[in-house]
Write a structure and sequence with these properties.
TIM Barrel, about 375 residues, about 15% strand, binds 2-Phenylacrylic acid, two-stranded antiparallel ribbon, globular
Amino acid sequence: MTEALFTPFTAGEIEMRNRIVMAPLTRNRADDDTGEVGDLHVEYYRQRAGAGLIVSEGTQISPVGKGYIQTPGIHSEAQVAAWKRVTDAVHAEGGRIVVQLWHVGRVSHVSIQPGGAAPVAPSAIPAGSKTFIKGGFAETSAPRALTVDEIADIVAEYRHAAKMAIKAGFDGVEVHGANGYLVDQFLKTGANTRDDAYGGPVENRARFLFEVLEAITDEIGGGRTGLRISPFSPANGISDADPQETFEYVVKGLNRFGLAFLHVVEGATGGSRELAEGQSVTALKDLFDGPYMANNGYDREMAVAAVRDGAADLVAFGKPFISNPDLVDRLSVDAPLAAPDQATMYGGGAEGYTDYPTLAGSAAA
Ligand code: 8OZ
């Protein structure tokens, strides 16, 4: 019997050969000066093209949107040309790939910002979290609050990045609205104390996200646009007074964009799936009209059940894809999975990146 997890699915305009998604994974191997990906990335993503869909690592829409060393961009022509080699390689293997459009907001450091400036955010409230800079981990720098004109400029940068994504051969984009970065900072009360049209009630806190989605979907179409959110995650020092209320409003508002998918980090990012009293991802899923992509700590059994029972259309796996390039093949035969090496996760070269063997490769070795 073929489990539904292994059957094709079409999300918006993106046709996938199975329901297994490679989640976005920051690996810090891009050229730090140019934000270009290289030969290693071509090989890494090619190896993982068996996924129904790959969501690329977080990729900056602008130099100010960068928060960590050696993360890639999708705003310059050179970055587009570099990514085109990746998308061509994935497509040659029959895979699909979208780029995750990322602006870190306050989760950055003066040493990474153009001209050594302060990072930008909805409000001048430090994240109180860590980033990695040249030389290692560092406390994030205190941000300054964006002006309304600057917010409009960032919306235009998202539009530009989406256009560049299509030029680079991506099948679409995923807006990174999760994990305490800029979109999440606007949405959540712990990072947004603005008293203008972008802060205060949820109608205002959601304005930035909706403007971003309006611009991107106008540029490339809703069927090529996905969104990732992490309503209940405390990642990167973020918090909200009433996440259930906030995200019920957000998800209802998404329906007008005809998105390809909504990708939800269920629980604390990379951590517990437990939710507090009154919190429910099912309630959010039920409010969304389009395909639902579930993520966070899924194993084979959970993923098979989620798709079979209609709790998810797609399931995204993160860490298992680091150490199992042939994850779909392994899941399909219920083969054991290799564990990832924490020491080579962020930064470095081929080791711990493109040298994890396939099941066939490890049997031969
Ligand atoms: C791990 C390290 C650095 C960044 C996220 C983009 O949490 C990230 C990230 C993860 O979404």
